[in-house]
Amino acid sequence: MDSPSPDVVEYRYNFISGPYATARPDEPGGPATIRFLPLRSGTDYLTVRAIDRSGRSSSTTTYWFRVQSGRAPVAQWKLTDAAGATSADAESGTDARAGSGVTFGATAPAGTGLTTTAHLDGGDQAFLTPDAPAVDTDGTFAVGAWVRPERTDRDMAVASQGSDGATLGLRAGDAGPVWSFTVAGQEVSGGAPESGEWAYVLGLYDAETGTAQLYVNGYETGTKTQAAPAETTGAFRIGQGAGVSAWQGDIGDVRAYDRVVVPAEVTELARQKPRLLGHWSLETASDGVSPEQSGGVPLKLGAGAVIHRGPDNSCLPDIDPDCPVVPYALVGDGHLQLDGETAYAATDAALLDTADSFTIGVVVRLTDSEPSGPMTVLSQAGEHTDAFKVRYDPSTYSWQLVMPEKDEAGAAETVVSQITGADGGEGQGHHLAVVYDDATDRIKLYLDGYTNAGATASFPNGWHSSGPLQVGRGHVGDGWGEYLHGDVDEVQAYSGALRDRDIIGLGSGTDPCLC
To answer: What is the per-residue DSSP string for 439-454?
Structure first.
């Protein structure tokens, strides 16, 4: 930034989405230089005003520019090669020679587009390498991969380059295992690796700022660390690194970049697209069974549960006095009515893998304005208690998500809630959704599309429940209770964690686009 005025002492500037900041020249009237990293592609602008020593401002100058999408990886190996292959085909860069400790055709993380991965046995021959460097370690670079460790009790390498260059991996640690990214001897670490669980890890070194940082499952973790790496001539290696054991477990989609990978990109790289398990619109029932929209597992209606059908518009009550007044359904042409005493609906078997990420949504309206006790709208049980329960608690005027920490009677519970009054049989009810994200160990309860701090909590150890999905009741002691008195519609269940922007689409009668 420069100005012909000899007494300019600062330049005030901003970009479309910030920052709004001030740059000062080394001497009055001189130029000033700023460094700026765009975090998204598309059109942006820089606006600048020059300010003199009297505080007078020049007119604003605007400079428009367009940011391209980030360059493709300089090296990438999906590791989806056929069983028996002795090398990994490169999507970019050079094919990687595989040691005898590598077996192709291993299981891939769900929802990623990968079909298989490579299994490394942790021995001396558990590696893949292009036999050449993949990145310039004295410049900006990043390395990321999908990984699933078989053990967490020893230090292991996911990928490395050079003996003193960079290593991405797992460190056992005295306080428990962590993910680790080491650059020129300086380490940044965080997260909590679990044996048998997939994670997406990415290490980034930004030569502009001189810092190394680490992402786990799309989120930055640990503390950025200053480092000063030098150029390395050693070969890039998958599964091996200096001073640590070889990887024991599965690895897929290894990527190396010669640029900053911005946070939104990391989030997308780490995303596991949810899969619809069932959508019950509750429009009809035949022989006590309400079908799933795509012909999947139906919901069986218990005693007292009925499908209410809205008006068919064959007559108009305002015109024809003999035309019955029929209330509209919550969504579409019908909904489930539950009597609060014995009525419920359920699948025949467990639907959600509650030990892994899942999402479930429902539309519900309470019949009473002052319910006499808690009422459960959704639950799925283990042997001794519910793995999760969504209920209305009239004592706190709130919807609650209750998740016991173990499958034991009387186990400690994590409870989050959203405050709202009971419906009293009026209105279009509320849209509720539960998200358990195993990757981040978080649970969220959404009310009408939104969550908040009070409806979010840490839940590090989800456990597998074997019982069927229940609509309208939950476990109480050794039996069933907390029967719901109200109307239920649009039950939608997914494996995987929906994003905030996807939750808004639940309960509308269609499935949200998980693009």
So the answer is: TTTEEEEEETTB--GG
Is 323 in contact with 315 (CB distance < 8 Å)? yes
Q: What contacts 508, CB < 8 A, 6 or more positions away?
A: 331, 490
- For residue 411, pLDDT beyond 90: yes
Average pLDDT over residues 291-318: 89
Angle at 353 between CA 348 and CA 356, to 5 degrees: 170
Dihedral, CA of residue 350, residue 438, residue 253 and residue 235, to nearest 10: -140
Torsion angle defined by CA atoms of residues 317, 322, 324 and 325, in that order, rounded to the nearest 10 degrees: 30
pLDDT of residue 325: 79
Burial letters 310-331, b for 16+ CB under 10 A, else e: bbeeeeeeeeeeeeeeeeebbb
Beta bridge partners of residue 379, listed in sequence order: 389, 470
Contact at 8 Å (CB) between 279 and 511?
Answer: yes
Task: Quickly count: other Cβ atoms within 10 Å of residue 407's Cβ.
Answer: 18
Q: Are 397 and 421 in contact (CB under 8 A)?
A: yes
Q: What is the pTM of this model?
A: 0.89
Amino acid (one-letter) located at 83? A
